[in-house]
């Protein structure tokens, strides 16, 4: 062998090979490190983008929900303000009269009961005094003129709404904000406020249920940076202005909302914050997560990639070192063996690198410019159940795509985004969402590479979509019954009305509420009441048609949209079916009870062509149904609307008339039958309206009882009658009627005692008349009040005796001083044998119980003769005198002797 020929082979060519190998190894290491860095950087950016996208979506949904919650309160406030405008209230006195109505209190209480986020609604006059309050009746004597929202709205004519700082409720300590709306007269005069209290704990409880992760913080700020709501709750920061929060900094540059990273001044953690300004309020909804928690999956993946890369580099360096140490005369053979060993090691390291890919949250696949598979991780394979032979590098993208489409044929979504290269001009951060046949939602993001290949990531977002769907459902449905709420029902009705415009008479809106629901709550507790409402909702859903709808409007009030009605009779049949279904007995464990319902019906378009018009008409029909007897239905009639308007105006006039001189007392004399001499008078209230003239007591007394005006009116009648009787020369008695509302006053005995003391009238001259029905409705409380009145020395008489259902039991329960026979029986004397028999029976009963009997409505001598023959003690009626001003009877009260009536 030529030795000189071997030297270049051993020492020349190998040296050049070593240098080339070193260069190659350095380049390879640099490429691996660079690739790992690029890959990790891409994962980092993707993690941040996904987190920001999720937070922005949640902030938008929650801000919309908060907007709706606050709008629900303002709908109530706007209705009150519009009611005042509709009533043409222009002075503080008119405003006070309109706002202090009892029916308005009941309406406020019913509306607040349907809004769990609302603590209370209060109506304030121009001086800060409470006029009405949804939580209490009678209204407490409270003045809020010192509050910031009152001062701001009273001082600034242009300011119409004010959102207060959060304060702790004086009753239960709950943090509350107040939304105040100004009420003005047509000329701009400040009349007062409609104040709504929002309990911040409602939002905290809501966010506690829907917070996506444990590290998530959901907050609500005012635009000035004041923190109003925070979940998780921290007591020491609520109500403070925090200018360094992420929400405050985003608002400085982007008032509508945005996203940023910031160190929270509350918990000193770096967070990714997304905010969204509420559309209708100076509030900001903020949701954030800690950067550490958001990037935790990325860090694990990056650690796995970095470890695999580092291990790969170490192995390459080790191979290089072994190669250098193993250089010898047998270099060719060693080199061949080294290459084989290096290839095996590289495969092992690539497998370790694949572990990192397979543990990614997203499924990932990489294709080259020839649309052949380069990398496909385990997560991608599990998403679509890819078989092993299609997971191998070199697999055509079309083969993979054909397999996936075959497995999920008929699924929804842009399937062109699956395993196809993206278009060059499509943004790389735009994801497509597909809905699979197994009810999964997959988000697909594709990125085009410079060499013509592309990377596609696939993420299962099913749970996130379901959470978002749940939030949307809660915003439009009643939580208890799962029925559509008022807002959602309005949308459904408006759509149906638009679709039914050419089918007049096919659609009806039925408004109903339960008769006896309060008794279920009182007897068995609110949980039983909730279960009853759920069962009622189920029965109603079983009755509606395919295009019908049912909703819970609030409390025990429901509404039904009935469709496909061929005639009015079908609407009546539908209403009767609802009444029968609701009236069927209920079983709740061992409890058994029954309730009924009343239904009001409004037909489209005869009774209205909009949701508001139909709802108002059906509500008026419902009130008529309940008034005429529970457990039935009534159709809306135009007279109801007119009657409701007239009744509303008359109620306002009645309230405004108190203390103005429009009311006066007329007196009707009472005579002893035996002596035919006057023994007393009954005081009767009369109202002369400035434009309507004389209004019948049968019309305004029931209205006064419904609105609560009977309390000040009754006290005025009592005081005026006692004052007049105290001036008479003769000690005649004075009879005054008591209403059930007065009898339920806790301080009625104090009022009567104070009036007697003020006027100087002796107690035994005052006779208080109560009807039998009033006594029965008052139950044990009525008996206790009447006994306290008798203890004052006042006489108690039973008016309208015989018209009730348990007259004898009533007489047995309480020792009355006098019985008054109703005029309906006196009128029948001499006309029907039955009437005379009833009068004789009552007179005989009074004699056996030693209770004097007075007959009212005596108009003929024949009636008087009959009563005298059967021992009637006293009479009252047109035969001896009509109700007139007391000046007409001065001859009976001012002389020092009794006079007979001429």
Summarize it.
With 902 residues, the protein is α+β, with helices and mostly antiparallel strands. The strands form 6 sheets. The protein has an 8-stranded mixed beta barrel.
Structural overview:
This protein has 902 residues and is of the alpha+beta class. The strands form 6 sheets. Strands 24-25-27-28-29-30-31-32 form an 8-stranded mixed beta barrel. Strands 1, 2, 3, 4, 5 and 6 form a 6-stranded antiparallel beta sheet that branches. A 5-stranded antiparallel beta sheet has the order 8-7-11-10-9, with helices on both faces. A hairpin with a 6-residue loop joins strand 4 and strand 5 (175-184). The model is unreliable at 1-12 and 897-902 (pLDDT under 50).
Largest sheet: 8 strands, mixed, barrel
What's the number of extended β-strand segments?
32
Overall structural class, as computed from helix and strand content, comes to: alpha+beta
Give the termini distance in whole angstroms: 171 Å
Q: How would you state the average pLDDT, rounded? A: 83
Low-pLDDT segments: 1-12, 897-902
| Count of DSSP-assigned helices | 28
**β-strand amount:** 15-25%
**Could you tell me the radius of gyration in angstroms?**
43 Å
Q: Provide the helix percentage.
A: 40-55%
Please list the strands of the largest sheet in the order they lie side by side.
Answer: 24-25-27-28-29-30-31-32
Overall geometric form:
elongated
